Amino acid sequence: MLALRELYAKIRRRQFEPADARELIKTSYYFAGAHPDVHIDLSVSRPADFHFQEVPKYEQRGMHSMFQSMDDAAMAISAALNCATGEEALRLLPHKKSVAIHSRTAAQHIPEMTVRSAIASMGVRTGTMYGTASTAFVVVVLNLCDGSVVLTTAYPTHMIQPKQWPAMQPPPPDGKDLLEYGGNFYPYP
Question: What is the DSSP-derived secondary structure letter of residue 82?
Answer without folding.
Answer: S
